[in-house]
Amino acid sequence: MIGASGLESLVCVPVLLPLLAAGVKLAIGGRLRGLQSLISVVTLGVSLAVSVVLMVAADTQGPLVTELGGWPAPIGITLVADRLSTLVLVVSSAVTLCVMVYSVANAYDDQEHDAPMAIFHPAFLVMVAGVADAFLSGDLFNLFVAFELLLSGSYVLLTFGGTEFRIRAGATYTLMALASSMLFLIALAVTYGATGTLSLAQLAERFATLPEQVQLLVELTLLLAFAIKAAIFPMSAWLPDSYPTAPAPATAVFAGLLTKVGVYSIIRLEALLFPVGPVSTLLMWVALATMLAGVLGAVAQTDMKRMLSFTLVSHIGYMVFGVALSTVAGLAGAVFYVVHHITVQTSLFLVAGMVERRTGTTSVTRLGGLMRATPLIAVLFFVPAMNLSGIPPMSGFLGKLMLVQAGLAAGGWLPVTLVVAGLATSLLTLYAVAKTWAKAFWRTPRSEQVGRVLESEEATGEDPTVTTTSLPAPLPLSVAALIVLGLSFTVLAGPLTALAERAAGELLAREPYVSAVLERPR
């Protein structure tokens, strides 16, 4: 059995191993593509195994801390693995592994001959390292570095293939990311000037001594920076125009993970640095607007990927609602919903990618009859869609139930209003995904409708025909594995809920985190 010191030395593996593998793959270049794929899958598999070990250790022994280079906090880079960070790290590692298998099977090098696959794999691993670094970061500056690492990898993935639409979407995404980074840097400058440190553990002790105006300034600036990254309304307009243009694996991991990094940062900072304050009411209003604006946008869409992008925005509102409650029950619901949503949203975007590969389009006005032609894809879309909608007894229902109970327990007209809005959002989500499924999979096959809509299609300049191609077997298998992972949250709802509650309690207690970092034996 590995001792405590051995376990602490593993904390850096999910960050450093993908970076090392990315360097090796860049050295290999375009040669030995089979080796490229093998390195990626093995790297992500090892990261997943290490993350599971860290999660078990953090839950039983308390937060694990490693200091890179041997420099103690607050001077050096500190990585902290506690219940929250390891839980989301395990789920993100499992998701990125499934997405990598999907991308290898999808063989983009066969579809986009000008797209350098030798760049896709390293960029993906750099992005994975940035996600892990953000989850484990023990100071604000390293969190900023993690976001920049994410940006460097995600921009390459978003513009992969160099098409006009992807370059335009990538430019929008990058401008928003840079705006967020500028706000983050401003918050870092103010924080360091006021406290003399950027260590989260030290900030948890020192923020309480600052004037209320300074606390509020830092909190609002950080929240605005993270709200852009998390696509919280009204800073969410960029997402539906950016994500759908990327390759399916990139879109899936963007939707499943990158927005959750922003949500995770909000959870971490609100619980650790600003446990009580006037911003909670503002967060509730923001959560309400995010839920309703996102789901109304989803209802209006006729493209599968854009519909999913708007549901992504709306369901971020559930997580912000849990954070805004500032209670153990609310935070536990938010943590549970983050874990659930990562798997479900990623699954749905991967299925949309299969539909696009099979038919050449994701426009539901041009699709139809896929239930008869590809029943497996129809089922793979239907199951996570129902989970996203919160159909009992799936994990989506359980996460919403936790938030509803937390909102009702908090009392007051605003939390109750959010509960009602959450239920309405769930029903509208069901309507949006059911409408999409019915049009794309259930109705009369598109080939039988061409004659009836040829005139309208020609008026818009679209090709009225839909071509079909076969799918490699690993594609549905990788998606099925991800869907099974999401369904397992229902089977393991008891242990997972208990772990989420322990993580929330540890967050609000703050002392375990602070002690683990500042009182660590040297």
TrEMBL record:
Q: Which residues cross the membrane?
A: 6-26, 38-58, 84-105, 117-135, 141-161, 173-194, 214-234, 246-267, 279-300, 307-328, 334-355, 367-386, 406-433, 479-500
Domain NADH:quinone oxidoreductase/Mrp antiporter transmembrane residues, every copy: 137-421
Major place of residence: membrane
**What keywords would UniProt list here?**
Cell membrane, Membrane, Transmembrane, Transmembrane helix
Extract the InterPro entries matched here. Answer: CPA3_Na-H_Antiporter_D, NADH_UbQ_OxRdtase, ND/Mrp_TM
- The superkingdom listed in its UniProt entry is Bacteria
- Annotated localization: Cell membrane; Membrane
- Short name of one Pfam family: Proton_antipo_M
Membrane topology type:
Multi-pass membrane protein
Which family does the UniProt entry place this protein in?
Answer: Belongs to the CPA3 antiporters (TC 2.A.63) subunit D family.
Provide the protein name: Na+/H+ antiporter subunit D
